[in-house]
Amino acid sequence: MPSTPTRRAPFEKSARTRARILDAAAAVFSDLGYAGTRLTDIAEAAGVKQGSLYYHFSSKDELVAEMLRVGLQKTYDHVATAIEALGPDATAADRVTAAITAHAEAVIDQLDYTAANARIVGQLPDEIRRQHLRIDQRPYGKLWDTLFEEALKAGEIRDDVDLQTVRLLILGALNWTVEWPERAKRSPSHVAAVLSSLLFDGIGSSS
Amino acid sequence: MPSTPTRRAPFEKSARTRARILDAAAAVFSDLGYAGTRLTDIAEAAGVKQGSLYYHFSSKDELVAEMLRVGLQKTYDHVATAIEALGPDATAADRVTAAITAHAEAVIDQLDYTAANARIVGQLPDEIRRQHLRIDQRPYGKLWDTLFEEALKAGEIRDDVDLQTVRLLILGALNWTVEWPERAKRSPSHVAAVLSSLLFDGIGSSS
DNA sequence: GTCTATACATCGATAGAC
DNA sequence: GTCTATCGATGTATAGAC
To answer: Which of A83, B104, B114, B191 has the fewest CB atoms below 10 angstroms from its CB?
Structure first.
């Protein structure tokens, strides 16, 4: 008996719903914080019912962990793409500036995921935070370290500064923009321009 | 019948317990976030039972609002004191540097209150956050604006930069230190030195 | 795969004894 | 002023129909 040719299964329906849930989670977590977010809120934003989330994720913690992982990947891609777009003959300083601009774009108005990452790391249950910092954030930190090392090798920045601290201060300043009061908000390119100028030249009048 | 002379009522017992509760709230909110903190946690840290909190505060929201207000006042005092300690003949740039150092001290290892403020503003219910930004944070922002304006008038910084954005970037970079991974932590004075040098001189090799 | 319905735990808030 | 006890609301997670 010939088997009825099974119609091409819609592999992707599940994947698409899953992606919609992650998008919704990024937006809602970013707004309400980790503990403040109810699964009902995420479900509503994703257009499904709360119980249905459990088909895709086994718990709130698994959902948040996945959202953070995916989000950091998106941020990484956005920044890496911006750097590559400069072409091979850009200066190291140009590359750092491009990275700053791209991260600012991601945090400020492009990616709920990046804002969510910035906003809820401090609120996560210990185990999830540890894993996120250890596993997910490493490559992104490495990307930035490489940028600074190249600038150093190229002689474009001074060799007497603690570059790891500089990197953390720069990314912190950008991540914190999510907390700026509405009236102080500026465009990513403006913020990036101010920060880059501050980073390389300072605002002292004598320099 | 002569009334037994009532012993001097211990006015201050209530005030002391209240202060202990606020201290405990700062520590716990800073650690677990706004929604993640249970009144039981605060009570335990303060050495009282959960129900007893309601003698001093009428709700969780009133408690958190008061903790934020008191905390910002402490931060303000710490920074203002550091500036005044410089004496009248310090340069405007010295005063900015002193403020950066003092804020770093407050955030990093001195005041749970400051860390709590930095960490949970983004998680507050709308009404509380609005009031905190509008009423509590204004004087502190003004203190910083004044510092930068003085530096500008004194000709110690360039006049072509958006100083409000600079101020927000600086404070953001410092506030974000609460999220730094343990291994990256540095002393307040080191962080402040790096940030001040970056702010005034930049790290470019050509300057 | 998504739904409805509900079990079960947790937490903010109140009541009332001491 | 602080306690114990408890109510009521809310939220995660599970069960089972479709």
So the answer is: A83
